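Lab notes, practical 5.
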Amino acid sequence: MSTNLVATVRIVLALTVQAIRFSNNAKLIIQQLEGFGLPPNPIKPQLYQDAIDSLTDAFNTLQAHPLNLQWSTDPILPLNPIYPNDQIRIKLSDNRALLALDRTNDAIRYIHTALLVSDDSDITEQLLLIKFQVKAARLVLEDGIDAPPFAGDVKSR
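Output from the prediction step:
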């Protein structure tokens, strides 16, 4: 593998890890909603969990043969602080989801670059699978961002 390809795929790996963290943070924050008389929308955290699952699949595929890239072990992240009101929680959750979306879009661009640089058919197939997994995460994140924060709510923005 060329050094340019390795460097590009390492960037994809880092962006994927960041997107997983932001998605998880968005999910945890939205689960803290107390909801002005309405329960939190159960679909929104599930959509974020689906994005986490797709991104984790991409992460695991990046670490598989023939790429064999390794990521150092992650430190244990602290729990989310308790935020004072639901409006702040909604904005923070949407912010984290948008950051995850940005990272997935960046990862897709870098995967495209890696595909252009790759000359090995096995690596190209693996990169195409990773691109599919990250695009699936992007679609779910977009749905999660568009979903209302409260059950029965049409749109709270």
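Observations recorded by the TA: Residues 86-117 form the longest helix (32 residues). The two ends are 47 Å apart (CA to CA).
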